[in-house]
Amino acid sequence: DAPKPPSVSVSPSGEIKEGTSVTLTCSSDANPASAYVWYKINNQTPLSTDSQLSFKSIQPADSGEYYCTAENRLGTSTPTNISVDVKYAPKFVSVTVSPSNEFREGGAVTLTCSSDANPAAQYSWYKKNGQKPLSNERQLSFSSIQPSDSGEYYCTAQNKVARKRSESTSIDVKYAPKPPSVSVSPSGEIKENISVTLTCSSDANPASAYVWYKMNNRTPLSTDSQLSFKSIQSADSGEYYCTIQCCHISLFSPADAPKPPSVSVRPSEGGAVTLTCSSDANPAAQYSWYKKNGQKPLSNERQLSFSSIQPSDSGQYYCTAQNKVGRKRSESTSIDVKCG
After folding, report:
1. Integer Cα distance of 92 and 115 in angstroms
2. Which DSSP category does 274 fall into?
3. Residues near 336 by beta carbon (within 8 Å), at least 6 away in sequence
4. Of 125, 143, 174, at which residue does a domain stop?
5. What region, left, alpha or beta, does residue 15 occupy, with left being phi > 0 and alpha being psi -120 to 50 degrees?
6. Residue 130, C-beta contacts closer than 8 angstroms, at least 6 positions apart
7. 291-299 contacts: CB < 8 A, separation 24 or more?
8. Which of 39, 150, 165, 190 has a Cα-to-Cα distance from 302 of 20 to 30 A?
């Protein structure tokens, strides 16, 4: 009689994993004995004319529907199908980033993990040197990316066959300069003739370009982050600022000791005389008046006044100018009161 519809089996039974040896077997009850032919659905080329179709190392491309027919001189059986589903670990685990060009602070950024796997992979996202996953979704999204998000990211794709990871993808978030900070070295009080350095710093990506100016002077003093004075002078007093694109900050005047004060004398009608002490200093000087060979100050004001000067007031007078940086004295000024 003609062959009955054949039965088909797979060995080993159960899940079929990539790279394993697999055998499909076709059998049919017939007399005389059947001859067998194996086909893959949608392919009319015979794969085997034996009762068995063997794969020494089965691959994902071998997945599909197979069928065999049994035939003898009395006829050909109807075909019997068997499905082969090859399971395999994730392949080609890759990351795509949107947008793909520059990443700017505050922008939206999405990283997408892709892989070829059977069964479908589950995804996790990590930042380099981080132990905990950032996300267990296929996509890692930043609605408003920040500089602190810069770093190396990778994803893992895992199914019950294996776990694989992608190459690392670098995220470098660009951001405008933060308001700069200015420091002075040495810190504390600035004295004339010492070396002084003003330093401007700002957090920015890409790195900032600095320019130093003195207030009310548009000529750049330095195009470096530092402005240095080897021997600072009183003429260097003033207000300085550095610019970083749109931002600036001011540094206030360096202090200096009083210059040697000068004395001016102004006689008035009726025998009144006024001596005035003057000095250039920062901070402003405090004044004291002395008569030569006298220990105690005659006045702690800028002016020393005689409302009705007398011969006994004749002598050498000088003033001192003092601030927290130093103390200087004037040349002596002679007062010679003539009797009328």
Report:
1. 5
2. E
3. 314
4. 174
5. beta
6. none
7. 291/315, 291/316, 291/317, 292/316, 292/317, 292/318, 292/332
8. 190
Cα 40 from Cα 242, distance rounded (Å)? 77
Whether 62 and 123 share a structural domain: no
Which residue segment(s) compose the domain that 107 sits in?
A: 89-174
CATH code of the domain containing 240: 2.60.40.10
Cis, bond preceding 79 (omega within 30 deg of 0): no
CB of 145 closer than 8 Å to CB of 103: yes
Q: Which residues of the chain have pLDDT under 70?
A: 1, 245-257, 268-270, 339-340
Give the pLDDT score at 281: 76
**56 in the Ramachandran plot: left (φ > 0), alpha (ψ -120 to 50) or beta?**
alpha
Within a domain: 1: no
Question: What CA–CA distances, in Å, run from 244 to 82, 130, 180, 251?
Answer: 72, 34, 7, 15
Tokens 């920062």, residue located: 282
Work out the mean pLDDT of the chain and round it to a whole number.
88
What are the backbone angles phi and psi of residue 234, rounded to the nearest 5°?
-60, -30
Query: In terms of domains, do 276 and 230 share one?
Result: no
Cα Rg, the chain, nearest whole Å: 48
Label residue 143 left, alpha or beta by phi (over 0 means left) and psi (-120 to 50 means alpha). alpha
Q: Is residue 340 part of a domain?
A: no
- What is d(CA 169, CA 122) in angstroms, rounded to the nearest whole number? 19
Give yes or no: residues 69 and 130 share one domain: no
Segment 3-54, tens digit of pLDDT:
888 999 999 989 999 999 999 999 998 888 889 999 999 998 999 999 999 9
Domain count, the chain: 4
- Decide: 94 and 120 in contact? Cβ < 8 Å: no
Report how far residue 208's alpha carbon sits from residue 200's, in angstroms, rounded to the nearest whole number. 10
Q: Are strands 226-229 and 240-244 parallel, antiparallel or unpaired?
A: unpaired
Structure tokens at 26: 């076709």
Residues 6+ apart with CB under 8 A from 43: none
Residues 107 and 148 in one domain: yes
